[in-house]
Amino acid sequence: MAVERRDTESEMYTADDIQVLEGMEAVRRRPGMYIGSTDQSGLHHLVFEIVDNSVDEFMGGFCSRISIVINADGSVRVEDDGRGIPVDIHPTTGISAVETVMTTLHAGGKFGGKAYAVSGGLHGVGASVVNALASSLTVEVYRDGRRYYQEFSRGERQTELQWEKLTDGEHEGTGTVVTFTADTEIFTELDFDFKVLAQRFKEMAYLNKGLQISFRSDWDPDLWPENEVSYCFEGGIASFVRNLNQTREVLHRDPIYVEKQVNGTIVEAAMQYNDSFNEFVYSFANCINTVDGGTHVTGFRAALTRVLNDTGRKQKLIKDNEPNLSGEDTREGITAVISIKHTDPQFEGQTKRKLGNPEVRNQVEVAIAEALPIYLEDHPQDTKRIIEKCMTSQRAREAARKARDMIIRKNAMDGGGLPGKLADCSEKNPALCELYLVEGPSAGGTAKMGRDRKYQAVLPLRGKILNVEKARADKMLGNDSIISMITAIGAGLDDDFDLEKLRYHRIIIMTDADVDGSHIRTLLLTFFFRHMNKLIANGHLYIAQPPLYKITSGKQELYAYSEGEREGILVQLDGKKNISLQRYKGLGEMNAGQLWETTLDPDKRTLLQVSQDDAAAADETFSMLMGDVVEPRRNFIQAHALEVKNLDV
What we know:
Layout: H1 23-29, H2 32-35, H3 40-59, E1 65-70, E2 76-80, H4 97-103, H5 126-132, E3 134-143, E4 146-153, E5 156-157, E6 162-165, E7 175-182, H6 194-207, E8 212-217, E9 228-231, H7 237-244, E10 256-262, E11 265-273, E12 280-285, E13 288-289, H8 295-314, H9 327-331, E14 334-341, H10 358-378, H11 380-414, E15 434-439, H12 440-450, E16 456-461, H13 473-476, H14 480-489, E17 506-510, H15 515-531, H16 533-537, E18 541-544, E19 549-553, E20 556-560, H17 563-572, E21 579-583, H18 592-600, E22 607-609, H19 615-626, H20 630-640
Parallel strand pairs: 1-8, 12-14, 15-16, 15-17, 17-18
Antiparallel strand pairs: 1-2, 2-7, 3-4, 3-7, 4-5, 4-6, 8-9, 10-11, 11-14, 12-13, 18-22, 19-20, 19-21
Helix pairs in contact: 1-5, 3-5, 8-10, 12-18
């Protein structure tokens, strides 16, 4: 096909059309490229970038404490006792090193390899990006008996670097203080989450043993007096593992700890087995949480499997006629933290979720393969318990495999393989389809009548599903409701879970608004968190919000989804006659039209998307609520009992 050529001067495409954004202008124009987003996550990212610079000072051996304060006006103050940013004139830029760091992308002590052997953060763009996205920023440097200070706004300097001599006792030692206020032209709302920030700082303290991190927030007055925390862990990641396992029964009292430097890379690992059926491995590279693992995790797993097999054979715990333990067998019930510090970490993708350095696999494998056999030889009783658990896992895994095969064969014989109770939708594009998991046949029947059959499918579940926190895979695969869900969703399970095979892009849990409904919802969330975690990680799992009350006044019908909303409606209707109030205890109490109007209609319904912003905290919560150890659960209930606004008994 011929293409008409347009040569009119008005449509010419020349070099003048190429826009060049330099320095801070580029950051302000495209902030998402540097901090991911301009919502709360991006706001927190600004705080972490400044704190990361202080952590780099600690990792270099020049800092011992970091203090973070969020002031009532929304400004953030980060102080450390490191060396202080250099204040002399930079030979290339011709301005002070402080101003260079604050106003020049990719300027910092992380590139030449002299100032920092290892570092995290955004590879030198951290401070300048924060400066560009702050309506005001002040940097103070304490060194040489002086206080240096300079002010900036939106990446531009407002004052020259100034200094004053310190009087005796005015400020001890050296350090840097950065105070900034995020720019409301960039961030639609300043909304700091104390728990999220505190959890990250706690994690940093675990990964850097001996580092003192204190955090206070005056931003949210409702937090007071629980608005301040302080962390310092001399046990480092071993303390981290011990904390993660506090709600589980452990097989050996103390975590196994490994620390070794291999070809310039510092390798740390801590591990402890418990009586659960799940693997909990958290990995970090230069204090960055590599959520998707990487070569350091691969090296750890390879060494763990090889060492346990070698030790089991050597100590006759695995007989000659028995097969080797698989990687899955050796990882059941393990809680581990792997942390490496590398001079040049290579991450896959901008989000740094996976470490890609190929040499790190061998470095971690060498460190684990040297240290773990020594521990196992010195602790024979621990070794026996660990390998016996691995062999029990092996037998259960084989039973689960047979159960899976039986399910596949049964589905093939049934033809099509979809569960009989599933009322499927007619739409074939998974991106447009949603599956409602509904409690019981009564609510299921109402949902089937009230749904939009084109794109909404309904699967009624019989009673409470199995608590998978307390059951192995073979027992789980004998539960009819779980099998129905696995088959209907169509993407598999655990390591075999494949998002490409997902039959619905929205999986929606819809249970009654009472205690039993909450329990069933928690059991379902536990199942998805443990066995279909990619559903949550990729934003495919939701919770429906049916109304608690129907309020009728004459011909007017109103629905309240919370106690507060009910009170507001009653106040609004005050004085009107014939007001009736109906408390919904079950979805089955609504007719099909009411269920559509309140819970199923995309234009009117409210859906909560399930997320796991902090996997470690989520893991701890599920283990505490659904596991075997009673004391942590009792303490949690006692601590939060007064927060329950409405309880059906």
